[in-house]
Amino acid sequence: IMVGHRTLGSSSTGGLAGYLDKKCKASWDKGTGGLVAWPTSAGFTAVEGSPGMQTFIKDNVYSIGYLDAGQGHDFNIPEVALTNLDGKTRNSKQSIALGGVAEAGNKGIAALVFPTDASADWSAVDLYDMAGDTTWPIVLVSYMYVKKDQTATDPQTAAALKAFIRTILQNYDNLCQENDFTPPSMDLKNLALAAADTIKYPSGMMSFEFETDTAAYTGMGANTISMKRWSFDDYERSILKAQIVGVTARVDMTVMNAPMAAAPAAVESSGGDEGLIVAIIAIIVSVVSICVSSGALLKARGSAKGEAGASATMIGAGQA
Questions:
Q1: How many C-beta atoms surround the C-beta of residue 94 within 10 A?
Q2: CA-to-CA distance for 147 and 90, rounded, in angstroms?
Q3: CB neighbours (10 Å) of residue 78?
Q4: Which residue from 33, 45, 112, 125 has the least number of CB within 10 angstroms?
């Protein structure tokens, strides 16, 4: 088994270490934090950034690595399921589809995990292994650090800052989903909006307005941000994306219709157990999950239909 880990400190490393420290203290002795003293022995490979981890997992059979959920999903890296505090076993994609990441935020609010004062120390906040039927066990939260007193800031700059904060917290135009993040639950969003309301802005500042439905005339105002207006760059990217989707669909169809090559006579089938040899840990954010290398997936598909890499059996085999 080949183990991949991040070269420098990262939030995904912090998420994995924090979860293992909470759930597996008898086996995990590396502590918490984004910078872990990984073994330097053979079999451990340092990779740089999430792209490096994606490549490592995809290119190495029997590899173990971790990365943010959306980045794992983008590369179709199969996951091993985790069992949450309520005893429900799912992978991150299944949990996200059921609202499990947002639900972890709700449970955090109910358990008073988040300080009510936005200026307090948030270093101890975590959403690892929260209670709930659908929750994913490794959930991370992104933060913005903003100077509370903006009264000396240029009014136009301050107005742009306020609009930026509002755009992110209100998730206008589904920015979270577009960038593979899960938007916070309503309770968590309200906590963040209340914190944003404590920021002091310069007097006379003209705030930006947001046009979500057609507002005749005013929708083109200087201080109006409209979700209905596109730049040419946005339009051109949408055309290119549609073309790429079409080409991908045609390539997939060509592969599906291609004749299957006969297996070499010298290769023996190891039966249904062959696909159970490897499991891969992978972290997934706002969320974190466990992934199987693409090479191992091919073997798993040889013995079972569907997403074999996401089964609980794969976790057991990987730990054996």
A1: 18
A2: 40
A3: 26
A4: 112
d(CA 142, CA 12): 12
Global confidence as pTM: 0.66
Stretch (H or E) spanning 128: strand 127-128
User: Which tokens sit at 195?
Assistant: 């914190």
Q: What is the CA radius of gyration of the chain?
A: 23
State percent of the chain over pLDDT 90.
Answer: 37
Residue 243: phi and psi, rounded to 5, are -65, -40
Residue pair 250/256 in contact (Cβ under 8 Å)? The answer is no
Q: Give the per-residue pLDDT at 51.
A: 92
Residue 275 DSSP symbol: G
Tokens representing 1 are: 């088994």
Contacts of 171 (CB under 8 A, 6+ apart): 183, 189
CA distance 249 to 232: 26
d(CA 109, CA 115): 9
Token duo for residue 285: 């954010």
Per-residue model confidence as pLDDT tens digits over 38-71: 998 889 999 999 999 999 998 998 898 998 888 8
CB 95 within 8 A of CB 133: no
Structure tokens at 274: 């062959």
Tally the residues of the chain. 320
